[in-house]
Write a structure and sequence with these properties.
The protein has helices at residues 2-11, 46-53, 59-67, 74-86, 94-106, 118-134, 146-158, 167-176, and strands spanning 41-44, 70-73, 113-114, 160-164, 182-184. The N and C termini lie far apart (44 Å). The protein has a 5-stranded parallel beta sheet. It has 8 helices and 5 strands. It has a single domain (40-184), classed as Rossmann fold. 49% of the residues lie in helices and 10% in strands.
Length: 188
């Protein structure tokens, strides 16, 4: 494990990241779904599931998801599942909100779920810490980037393209690791 930590630090030297990263204009980001190869696997960010449940997923992304192999990231499914426990069961709106989330989770094929490797956890934590520091995130919120970074790294680990509406965080991550493939979209 120590050698893994040393390798992560060597790849992502915190001292090399001392300035805030600037968000790039939309035209510099990967928004073109037509460039996704026909044999590409997709790894869906939480935003895709949420937008699909709300009927706000753009038609191009719906078509893309329907035509490609999908890999489901454990941290993303956990973000959906936390809602199951977090919503107040006494609130009359809860049942209607939870039903589609539970149905979505129930229909995820277990063999298509991937979890972060030990290396992804180490690298993800280092990158999340660097981003939290350089982007001026308050100490109490420094884990904010962790699930996004893990999901981003997992896409690379399994050779998938990350599909997300979270352009702000994915932009920063692509600046740190431009070799990771991602596709961004905006709500319909």
């Amino acid at each position: 494990m120590i050698s893994d930590v040393a390798a992560v630090v060597a790849r992502h030297d915190p001292a090399a990241w001392v300035r805030s990263l600037r968000h790039r204009p939309r035209r510099a980001l990967p928004y073109d779904a037509s460039i996704v190869p026909p044999d590409a696997q997709l790894l869906l960010d939480t935003t895709v599931y949420i937008d699909q449940l709300k009927g706000q997923l753009p038609a191009a992304i719906v078509a893309l998801v329907a035509s490609r192999a999908i890999v489901h990231a454990a941290p993303v499914l956990a973000e959906l599942a936390v809602t199951v426990g977090a919503l107040d069961p006494r609130d009359p709106r809860t049942a209607a909100t939870l039903a589609p989330i539970v149905d979505t989770l129930r229909h995820v094929p277990p063999q298509r779920i991937v979890a972060p490797s030990e290396e992804a956890w180490l690298e993800g934590a280092a990158l999340a810490g660097i981003l939290a520091r350089t982007q001026g995130i308050a100490k109490g919120d420094r884990r904010r980037f962790l699930n996004d970074v893990l999901t981003f790294l997992m896409a690379a680990e399994v050779g998938a393209i990350l599909v997300s509406r979270n352009a702000r965080d994915v932009d920063l991550l692509l600046q740190m690791k431009p070799e990771v493939r991602a596709l961004l979209y905006e709500r319909a």
